[in-house]
């Protein structure tokens, strides 16, 4: 059984947009939430073109409690309370710890970790009230489990490590309600976020691809397929888990001998 309404944060681009469109192709009603209102609107239009039963675009800053609450109320009014939620919005800022501005570090944690908490809290409140179960998927990262060879990854790694711990805890809390909470762990995926802030995007893509055992970057639609499985009843006995979709990156030792 597929959830009637699916809400996605960070839906304006990359993996979030791919999940939104994939859910739409299954005939779901979808809600595109993004801090960039125009990107959310474009994603919702793409979802309608893909076959969504209905689609709504909502501007949402996941680091703001008021913004998340307002966004979910707007989703409920437009397409109904979601039975499946993908808490995906995230940012990345890199710097060595000794040179990391506190404001930037806090902003990464505010979006990536606090934003997941606020999104999930709103979703879980509504799912518990509805009393019909549901599925929540959060975006973690290999950085939650292993160090980033590029360095300067402390804020992002800390935020994603927090997401992974949060998922395990929330899964236990909400299992009695029939609500499943899981994480997807995308590796190097060909999105704008991969090269954000880099002076040479092509060099970054090529360098990242050489580190992946499968020899290439992931596509957003490949990660979306993993997320869709977790959101659907096809994974009905899966909760508190991490589905790694990284081309083998985390299985590889850094030692080449």
UniProtKB/TrEMBL annotation:
<dbReference type="Pfam" id="PF13561">
    <property type="entry name" value="adh_short_C2"/>
</dbReference>
<dbReference type="InterPro" id="IPR036291">
    <property type="entry name" value="NAD(P)-bd_dom_sf"/>
</dbReference>
<protein>
    <submittedName>
        <fullName>SDR family oxidoreductase</fullName>
    </submittedName>
</protein>
<comment type="similarity">
    <text>Belongs to the short-chain dehydrogenases/reductases (SDR) family.</text>
</comment>
<keyword id="KW-0560">Oxidoreductase</keyword>
<dbReference type="GO" id="GO:0016616">
    <property type="term" value="F:oxidoreductase activity, acting on the CH-OH group of donors, NAD or NADP as acceptor"/>
</dbReference>
<dbReference type="InterPro" id="IPR002347">
    <property type="entry name" value="SDR_fam"/>
</dbReference>
<dbReference type="InterPro" id="IPR020904">
    <property type="entry name" value="Sc_DH/Rdtase_CS"/>
</dbReference>
